[in-house]
Design goal:
The complex is a heterodimer of chains A (121) and B (110). With 121 residues, chain A is mainly β. Chain A is built from no helices and eleven strands. The N and C termini of chain A lie far apart (39 Å). Chain B has no helices and nine strands. In chain B, the strands form two sheets. In chain B, strands 1, 3, 4, 7, 8 and 9 form a six-stranded mixed beta sheet that branches. In chain B, strands 2-6-5 form a three-stranded antiparallel beta sheet, with no helix packed on it. Chain B is globular, with a radius of gyration of 13 Å. The chains are: A mainly beta (121), B mainly beta (110). At the A-B interface, β5 and β10 of A face β7 and β8 of B.
């Protein structure tokens, strides 16, 4: 069974940075695209960013473009999200999500349990 | 990019069928066959139930089926069971490396 474990969430002040990590196991990590999707508790889902299997394609939602950077390390089976210039509206539970296949244009197959990011002064 | 429109709630008695709609535009649902449906139980992460409009991942009961007509996609749950009570979200690829989710539907089993 696919396992995705997020870490790095926490409380941070507006304008500061945070880095999320996602450790993947029980599947061939370097064969699949990966994404980050966020959800304000009690609210709906919002796609944030995606990365192809070989990091050739990096894509972002307009709401985070220029502030967030997605990356992956296939040798370490890990996905990352560097979040800079954080805003209060970035407060959410951030899910690490496996794509159905290798390209960024895909459905979201398996989800981690999420890392809570709270941006507040 | 606006969220896809779903009814806030849907309900049915055990054994009945319920259909949830997901309305987008000709730039997302209407243009691409990357429509997916996710079930989210309270306190849990979403789980993929339908992808590429009609495909079911292994382990998902065949009571769940997806379809699309024009700019509207639909999820039908046949033979409703108590365990189907959850929030359901649709999503669609929206072109230009962008995705959009639906507003979510709470399904209640009466």
């Amino acid at each position: 069974e696919v396992q995705l474990v997020e870490s790095g969430g926490g409380l941070v002040q507006p304008g500061r940075s945070l880095r999320l990590s996602c450790a993947a196991s029980q599947f061939s990590f370097d064969d699949y695209a990966m994404h980050w999707v966020r959800q304000v508790p009690g609210k709906g889902l919002e796609w944030v960013s995606g990365i192809s299997w070989n990091s050739d394609s990096l894509v972002y939602a307009d709401s985070v473009k220029g502030r967030f950077t997605i990356s992956r390390d296939n040798a370490k089976k890990s996905l990352y999200m560097q979040m800079d210039s954080l805003r209060t509206e970035d407060t959410a539970l951030y899910y690490c999500v496996k794509g159905v296949d290798f390209g960024v244009v895909t459905s979201f197959d398996s989800w981690g349990q999420g890392a809570l990011v709270t941006v507040s002064s | 990019q606006s969220a896809l429109t779903q009814p806030p709630s849907a309900s049915g008695s055990p054994g009945q069928s319920v259909t949830i709609s997901c309305t987008g535009t000709s730039s997302d649902v209407g243009e691409f066959n990357y429509v997916s449906w996710y079930q989210q139980l309270p306190g849990y992460a979403p789980q993929l139930f339908i992808y590429e409009v009609t495909k079911r991942p292994s382990g998902v009961p065949d009571r769940f089926s997806g379809s699309k007509s024009g700019n509207t996609a639909s999820l039908t749950v046949s033979g409703l069971q108590a365990e189907d009570e959850a929030d359901y979200y649709c999503s669609s690829y929206a072109g230009s490396n962008n995705y959009v989710f639906g507003t979510g539907t709470r399904v209640t089993v009466l």
